[in-house]
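#struct-pred

JT: dropping the chains for the assembly here, can someone run the whole complex?
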Amino acid sequence: MTDDYVEIARQGRLASALHTAGYKLTGPRLAVLYVLEMELCHASPQEVYERGVAIYPALGLSTVYRTLDILTELGLARPAYLGDASQRFTVHHDQRHYHLVCDACGAITDVDEDRITELACSLAAGLGFKPRGQYLEIYGLCQHCQAQPARPPVN
Amino acid sequence: MTDDYVEIARQGRLASALHTAGYKLTGPRLAVLYVLEMELCHASPQEVYERGVAIYPALGLSTVYRTLDILTELGLARPAYLGDASQRFTVHHDQRHYHLVCDACGAITDVDEDRITELACSLAAGLGFKPRGQYLEIYGLCQHCQAQPARPPVN
DNA sequence: CCGGTAATTGAAATTCTTTCTCAGCTAGAA
DNA sequence: TTCTAGCTGAGAAAGAATTTCAATTACCGG
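RK: done, full complex below.
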């Protein structure tokens, strides 16, 4: 495990946005961005921290929270409750976050659908609301868990 | 302030659902349901508690959490992050929760739009997903805050 | 390439939120 | 009215998030 993550993260979309906004690209910060971009799109701060420590051992939990806050402020992440048991989760994407969340196994599937975006925007416009982003979550049963009546599969 | 809340809450949609599911309709529980139904559609447990105590002084915070859990389990409420500063919030409605959330003042506007429901359902169906409910949040600036460049209005 | 400085850092303390425990109480069926 | 499973509040405990602070560091300008 070398320091490749620095170069990889530095070239990423998130790092670029932070830099543009005037934030410094430090080692710990890049480790967090690397985790979010390459490993975990949807994760709790704790999970991000655990993965981050594997990359940058001195990483502190505070830095994870701080970085997630910055990303949220820049509109690159957002807090959400995904599924039942999960605590505070954060996700990232452009300005659209569309998810299918399985009630049984907790699996999260990303969906990208322009029609929803259009519909939501026209809806907001009709009410004089200026949208910055949007979040759609459909919860229910994934294909796997519909077949399997009792026990959840993986997670 | 009499005990009218008992009769009012007892006749509500939430109380009826709890009763059908076999839960007892107790004083503390009805106070929470009253608050949720008549006063606060979108609220943190703490806020529900504060209002609830005004109605039923002996109310405990545990009961608020427990009642919100039951409502969530029955699909009548759901946890969500609404806006920036807010902590864990819960909302209630049938199975559809569509919100416009203002980034500046935190105002939450409910939206009811069949087209979104249809679109989301057809989307899910195409992926073999069986939807139980859905949640859409559009965040941005409300009409008021677009005009007012600096300071948020009420809250 | 180097120095200065304001931003950033991790650890620890703190605060806030949520869950658990338990002995007493109560709604509602019989 | 009686009985009992379910419900209660208080306090303790666990868990999550934020704050503080002295030490460190990215990176701009020279």
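JT: nice. The longest helix of chain B spans residues 27-39. Residues 150-155 of chain B have pLDDT under 50 and may be disordered.
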